[in-house]
Amino acid sequence: MTRSRLRNAVLVVAFTVASVLTSGVPPAQATPGEWTPDPARYGVGERINQPIVMSDGTVLRGNVYYPAEPATGEPAPGPFPVVLTQTPYGKDKGINDPSVGTTGMGKNPYLIERGYIQAIVDVRGTGASEGAWSFLQPVEANDSVAVIRWAANLPHSSGAVGLIGQSYGGLNQLMAAGAAGRNSPLKAILPIVPGDDLYRDVLGTGGVPNSLLAAEYLAVNLPQSYLNALQSALLGYVHGQSLDNLLRVLVEHGASLGVLPIGDLLVGGPNAYDSTYWAARRPHDVLADIVANQVPAMIVGGWHDAFQRGTPLLYSGLQNAWSGRPTYAPMSPDQPVTSRYQLVQGPWFHSTVAVEGVHPYLNVSKLALRWFDHWLKGRPTGITDTTTPLHSYDLGADRWIDATSYPFRGATPTRFYLGAGRSGTIESSNDGTLTGTPPQAGGTDTVVWSNVPHACTPSTTQFVLLGADQTPGSPLAPNPCVTDARPVQLGPDAATYTSSPMTTATTIAGPIAARIYATANTADTQWVVRVDDVAPDGTSKPLTRGGLLGSLRALDESRTWRTADGTPTLPYHPYTAASAQSMLSGTLTPYDIEVFPTMATIKPGHRIRVTIGTDDAPALTPTITQTLQLIGGVYQIHRSPVAASYVELPLAAPAALSPTCTDQTTCPVA
Asked: What is the DSSP-derived secondary structure letter of residue 31?
């Protein structure tokens, strides 16, 4: 063994021991409020398009950026840990261009200048890498294992590897950590706005395809990937690579343009349901493997993110796996937790969460340095010195809270019934009330099915270009599409139910469920449930929404979260073709609808509004088959003693959600 390899082996052992020790006993040398990042010490050197050979002979290519001596530009001796990003969007251009800011996808001088090697690799079939691409295809996880080993053996590497990346680059981190094995060089991951379940989170909400997101991916992301690949191949040809290589890229990468099952999503083929295709790409199902492989994870999510539903479930699944519980179960309020698995759930949308200067709430580079300094360098940064590893932003109070469990400890599921009468808060076709008292008499409200696209809704902002950031304080804010939802509440495809003004501040925190009893004149129904915060001036600020196709209303009891009395708080539907249930026109039917979670304090004088509607186009667009069963739908929402429609909201006094987060890395506005 060479001297350098021996030194690297010793360092890897040292870092591993340090990680194990610090995971159980917080280091005394640093506390969360005291840590400060190291100053920049190095320049940045680069090696472009380095080949990485996979087990089947496919060659992937990556860029390597390394700490350089400022005076000479020569590689600094190190050894340095490696931070690795794997992306389908092109490692050289597009969203990875450093000029657009630090996104968690591109070159990050902040980390490199502070003693990290960074590698950015085009995943199979994209950019300069060979092969054909398919969205998060299973072979990609196997590729990741080989790429991690390659990164660990780069010149001047210490042998310790961490993963960082946003969106797709967060999803493949989770799959890689699940496949890495117990003794991998992979020591920590930092997924930024990843998903838990691609079908339920974004592409098949309630069993209805998100055609807007699928079309955006097809129209924007895939062509960008292809153009990046073509550019890399042309540059290679100019610099002496063979014409065969250029032709190969044109054929292989061009074949990848249909890799999402867009056709199925539009016409109702097998993958319009939760199929084996989606199961093979479900990060939640590898969470137990991540824990078994002893890979710590710092997750960054957002209450307005496209994966709003998923990131809290990643947190609960990892914590459950660590404590020996089923990953799909709700956490117990008093179960032990570990700081190895943390979540920062902020107020941002998807696309600009990690771009510095767009909003004032988070510096991802600084968070990454602190996380990786601990796990990859064994330094006492204090990042694991917490007994409350869930850091969440309160949308209604401009505060951060620290918590342990999800669902949130201190939040009690509270039933609000759809009521008769008029609240007097909105000029709509149905201005109903929302009350804690069950109905004493029978009544119904009428909504009609519609699939007319709304140009300006929270959903369009959330999914068009994956949500331009609207965080308060951002130069992109405010956006009327996410500040006032009254235009989509007027009917006749929606019925509103509004509470009396809050007399004290009340926080909605966690998963939400609605049970709607209804009759319909069609063979199927479509439901969209929205929850808003209504200000005294009438502004109806959207907080969250959920949906359900009526024929897919069956529940998976093993994964449905319930209160002690059996009320669903997070309905889990199989969404498979086999689970579809027929419907008889005019038959009273209950529907349990999952509404995505949120955290928002409703101030005194403000009201809670629940809107029961049928239309969230173009974000949710039924397949052709579904549409034929929905056209002409007229639904009667029932509110009677025997069919009392309601929404179950997790409510807490603001003081019950404590302590207030004061760590200036994970909650810098506190």
From this structure: -
